[in-house]
Amino acid sequence: MNRREAIKRASILLGGVISASAISGVMSGCKAEPKIDWAPKYFTSEEGGLVEAIAERIIPRTNTPGAKDAGVPTFIDSMMDGFYQEKEKTAFREGLKKVEADAKAAHGKSFVALTPEQQDDLLKKYDAEAYDPNRGKDEPPHFFRTMKELTVLGFCTSEVGATEFLKYDPVPGDYKGCIPYAEVGAAWAT
Question: Does any domain span residue 189?
């Protein structure tokens, strides 16, 4: 799968909008690569653990690999390190601080120590804030919108995401311009 096609597919999954920073990173070759023990370049180790936990709740492991399996946390770290502007980085870091503060206020524990259900409850709140139609256009993007964007983009452009989650055929067959979706069954990576 080429990068342009991956961006197109991720854009469709995100509702048609991908930030310029995300496009710049993917077009420059930034991709998710799974690592067993990763050391963040941009984030602190606490922030890295938080990014990993949030990404895994956005795309959890089920009968297909999850965000962590695909190396999405390292992708997000690389993207923030090399391609996002200071305004976006600051908004993202402030959002991570808010997640920790809200988790401790609501449950007395760090976000990573919460149950998946408690984590999901907090993330649903941020999702509603991020996609609130009354959100000011001059405000920096909500950290959770950026987090979802990078998680989906990193996952769909990873080898695991493209070959095990999306349908993948390195040598596609005949072109059929109009076929029922039921015959296809899932989105294609190629």
Answer: no
Asked if 32 contacts 70 with a C-beta cutoff of 8 angstroms, the reply is yes
Q: How many separate domains does the chain show?
A: 1
Place of tokens 């695909």: 70
Task: In whole angstroms, give the CA distance from residue 78 to residue 92.
Answer: 14
- pLDDT tens-digit map of 6-65: 555 555 555 555 666 666 666 665 565 555 577 899 999 999 999 999 999 999 999 889
For the full predicted model, state whether its pTM sits above 0.90: no
Place of tokens 């995100």: 14
Q: Is residue 96 part of a domain?
A: yes
Residue 173: both structure tokens together: 């067959």
Cβ atoms of residues 82 and 76 within 8 Å: no
Distance of alpha carbon 13 from alpha carbon 79, whole angstroms = 19
Range of the domain at 9: 3-184
